[in-house]
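DM from R.C. (forwarded with permission)

"hey, sorry to bug you on a friday — could you get me a structure for this? deadline for the figure draft is monday and I only need the backbone to look sensible"
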Amino acid sequence: MKRKSFGNMQCPVARSLELVGEWWSILILRDAMHGLTRFDEFEKSLEIAPNMLTRRLTSLVSSGLLERKKYQDHPPRYEYILTKKGKDFRPVLVSLLAWGNQYLAPEGKSVLLVDSQSETIIDPILVDRNSKKPLTRISSRFVPGPKANKETIARINFANERKPKKIK
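My reply, with the result:
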């Protein structure tokens, strides 16, 4: 069965999933954030079949999340370096880490995020860049953007109408 493409959908979540929604892609980006750059490093870390790794790396390069750079001429060997777009995926990985630690680690947390200088454990949250206030489902909501089409406006407005209204 052919997989549906989300690339033409107006939703930014759907478009993001088009680039990184396949689980190997997210794990490759995770490993790249940990400093892995070479094919054999990814292959060993992920225990992934070479043909699958090749497809995922090619996709991440064509999507602009990784850059392929030659580091050896004979035989030709390449490394895969995070681009700015790839580095900007880090908050998504941090959010997945925090969510996974909260809900999917009955044995306890196996990976923690710590402050680079103090080594203090960090409990990440999402905050608004301008107000610095935490983003919660109560303090924020989705609204159609200036370029939203009719379908996007209808979907978001329908969802907002179903939410209980705040009493002032």
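R.C.: lifesaver. Helices lie at 12-20, 23-33, 39-46, 50-62, 84-87, 90-103, 150-162.
me: no worries. The chain has a mean pLDDT of 90.
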